[in-house]
Structure formats: C-alpha cells, structure tokens
Design goal:
Layout: E1 2-7, H1 11-21, E2 28-33, H2 36-43, E3 50-54, H3 62-71, E4 80-84, H4 89-98, E5 102-105, H5 110-125, H6 150-159, E6 164-169, E7 174-177, H7 179-184, H8 189-192, H9 197-201, H10 203-219, E8 223-230, E9 233-243, E10 249-258
Parallel strand pairs: 1-2, 1-3, 3-4, 4-5
Antiparallel strand pairs: 6-7, 6-10, 8-9, 9-10
C-alpha cells in the first residue's frame, strides 16, 4: 500500500490534492498537513512513498521542508513533488537543489498531477527516488535514472497511458501521437505524424484545437481543462507548452481523457 503525504497551507488545495492522490492507484493511504513542522514531526516516525508539497508556505518554504525531509532517516528514498502557483524560476532551482524530484506549476492539470504522481511512485519503487540516506543533511541529492531512458523509454511510458496524448508544432502539424490516440483514430502513431489537426480530428474539432494551440503559443502558458466531443464520447482536454532547451515554446502538448475517468473519492479524515 502506498503512503502519500500532502503538505499545503491552504485547505482547498489539501482537499483537492488528497482526493486526486486517493485515485492514483488502489489501496493508497493519504496523510494531509497544513504546517511543515507538523509534517516533519509525523515523518520522523512514519514511512512515506511520495511527498506532494506546496512551495510558498508561512514559516518554511517547500525547499527548506524538502531539505529537512531528506535529512530524516529514510527521507532520501521517497520522491518529492513540489507545487507552486508562482512563475519564478528561482523557486524551481531552489526546490531541485534541496532534493526535490519533480516540480509542477499550478493551476494544476488534475490528470497531469495524477500521472506524474503515479510515475514518481514507480520511480521510488525502482530505487530511483533518491540514494540511500547518508549521515547529516544531504546536499544536492541526484535522483537515479529511470529504468527506461531516452526517447524510446519515454514513448513506452506515454503509450502505456489510457489518455490520448499528442504534440503539434507551431505550424499546426502533428509531431507526436501516442498509442491511445492512434488507436482511437484507427491508425498507427507514425501515420499521424505530419498531419494537420483538421486531418486528424475533422474540421470542427481540428479548428478549435488549432485555436487553442495558438493561445498556448501566444501566452506560453497552459490552458485550463475544457470539455470537447471526441471519438468515443466526451473528453476532458488540456494543453501545455513544450519548450526547448533555451526556454522557447516550440510545440503544444495535448492530453485528452474520457470525462469522469478520474473520479474523486471521499476526503480523508485527519
């Protein structure tokens, strides 16, 4: 059974994250905290498989919390996902420097949070969350690599998802499609590469998708989830910018899941 710790000073966020965490996989146990000191005290005597923490909190930010957690016995093994609403690169650097495994900016795409958390749990179980703890505080701990590496490994991960995932370049051409999307369209993934959105989805959906892509390309920010009609029923779709190594947005990643595929369970008691 996976144990997930949620830390956020805002009650609304704690409730949302806890509900999402409860559906990451079967038999998940969730502990929620609003104060970093309370969370660290609990962690001194309890094992955890994944930590999801806010960055900006009164009294102690997510970087300092992560640093202290890593110094606890057993704290080096569990992946840490840091979430923040602030678009400040220094937050990301500080969190990763303190030992965070991944970083996510809100507003949160619920499907992305669940997917990242599921992958981080798998990473932790593979022994790649962090190295074994050493005496004293850890300095710049580096996660071990995933068992699947490079483009081939990433493609295998994306093809294992039940979501329809694609990427389009600035001209609106498909540059990637995963197995779920290809199966929905009755084609192989490689057959979709190079096609325009209207060729993939038809005129109405294709033009709407292209307009949404242009909004992402213009602003450099993700779009809130929206509903749309797709093959097989209604979908919940999100779009996010894909950046190159210089930070320039070069493409748009689209993720669509059947509406209601991530049901929210009851809020856990504290």
């Amino acid at each position: 059974m996976a144990m997930i710790l949620i830390l956020d000073d805002r009650a609304t966020n704690r409730s949302i994250f806890a509900r999402l965490a409860s559906v990451i996989e079967d038999n998940v146990s969730v502990e929620v905290f609003g104060d970093p000191h309370d969370a660290l005290e609990w962690l001194e005597g309890n094992r955890v498989d994944l930590v999801i923490t806010d960055f900006k909190m009164p009294g102690m930010d997510g970087a300092e919390f992560t640093r202290r957690f890593r110094a606890l016995p057993g704290g080096a093994a569990a992946p840490v996902l840091v979430v923040t609403a602030h678009d400040d690169r220094s937050f990301r650097v500080r969190a990763l420097d303190a030992g965070a495994t991944d970083f996510l900016q809100s507003p949160i795409d619920h499907f992305e949070l669940v997917t990242r958390a599921r992958n981080l749990l798998a990473l932790g179980r593979s022994g790649g969350g962090m190295a074994e703890p050493r005496p004293g505080p850890l300095v710049n701990p580096v996660p071990a690599p995933l068992p699947v590496q490079g483009a081939e490994g990433l493609a295998r991960i994306l093809d294992s998802l039940p979501a329809q995932v694609s990427a389009t370049d600035r001209e609106g051409r498909c540059i990637y499609a995963n197995a779920a999307l290809a199966a929905t369209l009755g084609a192989r993934p490689d057959e979709l590469v190079g096609a325009a959105l209207t060729s993939l989805f038809g005129t109405t959906r294709g033009e709407r998708s292209r307009a949404a892509d242009l909004a992402v390309l213009a602003t450099g920010t993700s779009l809130p989830p929206y509903r749309e009609a797709g093959a097989g029923g209604e979908l919940l779709t999100t779009k996010a910018p894909l950046r190159d190594q210089t930070g320039e947005v070069t493409a748009v990643v689209t993720t669509s899941i059947p509406l209601g595929a991530i049901p929210l369970g009851p809020e856990p008691d504290r």
